[in-house]
Please model this.
Amino acid sequence: MNDLGSAFEAAIGLVSGADPALLGIVLLSLQVSLSALAVAALVGLPLGALLAVARFPGRAAVIVALNALMGLPPVLCGLLIYLLLSRAGPLGPLGLLFTPTAMVIAQAVLIAPIVAALARQVLEGMWEEYGEQLRSFRVSAIRAVPTLLWDGRFALLTVLLAGFGRAAAEVGAVMIVGGNIEGYTRVMTTAIALETSKGDLPLALALGMVLMAIVAVVNALAQGLRDVAGRWAG
Model:
């Protein structure tokens, strides 16, 4: 018990003292997760909007596949990205394996289906509500996409926050493609796993505290945006 208390005390000291190693890991984690979120948003939001307004053969199958990909196991995603980026893979010559870029790709692949599927649900409801009115102004479904994205911006921000939370908590895929290299590809989740296995509880606990704080802030922002969206709609 004394050892555990000492570990917590040391962890608090690392956080309050802005330990350089701790800060480096946290900043890299935020950089990778935010970059992955940007890529996933560029792919997922237009795809979700297209599925919300368009009607085409095979649409139901695409939606089912997208919903299934929301549950893609991270280690499987990491393995697939690893095979693509390895020397024998089609993208091997780019030399991206065991780099932050590879970690961004893995996280983006994981969260893009989440962003697209949730965005479709949000925008489909808006299209059902406003579609007839937009069509009366001779606005086609495709041309209505920017309008829906703008009107649904608060709800879509909560979608993006959900994607960021998923990315920030990822460990399996980024460890496979990033290699958990100290000072280069070590992020919060992989560092927590490593430091715990090494018995370095203070650093693991400090990173856990920061990660929980980030998750709490993300959830608070999401709730705040929901309230804003509700007042805006009202």
